[in-house]
Design goal:
By secondary structure, the protein is mostly helical. It has ten helices and no strands. Helices cover about 80% and strands about 0% of the residues.
Length: about 375
Amino acid sequence: MSESTPLSSLGKGDGLHQQVLASFPLCDMAEEDLTRNPLFCKLLATLAQHVDQTGLTVSLRSELDKAEQKLQSQRRHWLRSESLHRGLQEMIQDCSVRKHHTTVPPDQTMFHETMEKCLLVAQCVRQLDPSTTTNQDQPSILGLNTQQVMELMPPEKNVQRMKQSLPRELEKHLKKKCLNLLSYYQPEWESESEGLKNSKLSHLSVQLDKEQKRAKSLKETCRENTVLLQRQTQLYLSELTKCIQLLQSLILDHRLKTQTDLDRKKLEYFEGKCELVLQKIKAEMVEIQLDTYTADAISAHRKIREKLESELKACRVEKQSVEMKLASFEILGKEFEALAEEYCRLLQEIEAKNWALKEFAQYNEK
């Protein structure tokens, strides 16, 4: 988005929200956040005219693109040199391996030995003088200089011969590597003829480039899906939190209502239980009172019986006394009648007390 783009072109309402979210995909924002904060949404819409999706300004992005282009150019140059150097090293290694299995022609042996020495000398020279910015006063490695190392180069004749054969040998080696790559990428072409392989090999770079672009596109899609998934996960968690809070409130309300009913039932249960306990206590108290009353009655009856028995005994003693008096005064006239009446009275009292004693004995038996 250019700097001259007016704010009105960003849209209004939901369209503005969607454009702001698209302008800042790395920010963890939702449309609800922009709706609740309209001034912040306006600020982001204005800021989107001066920065890109990564948050860099337009001028800084331009400088960064130029630096990246320069870096890519230097990287390609380095990769070209590194690929050539590794290819030469692989050729030397292949020759060393062939020596252990087959007989290598003398010219091939001379070619690879010369190339190996040249590579070693060049590597040592680069170690002695790695760049043009190296301080000249810096002490050299092992006291050596470039001229001393260059003296270890093979004869010039062998070097020239090696240089003449190098392009052809390097081409053969690279072609062999490309064919191996083609066999790995498309194994079904391994049994085809050399012409078909060369034809297929000419299109291999295009196919690899398409595959690389496809992989990059899939990676970008995966990143977008990841951002979308994060937003949806956040919305899902937000809605889930609301549902949990609503469920908690419903559970709390239901628990309060149920707790009231439960408390009332518990109260009724405890009231009934207390009533049974009180009735049991009352029954036990009545039984204790009855036992106490029975014990008191038995004690009183026992006292009455003892009193009656003592009175009966006294009456019997008095009766014997009267009978003795009657026997001694039977001959007396009126005095005897008085004694007789007294005797009758005593008999009546004895009979009455015997009856009372008998009734008391029957009551005790009951």
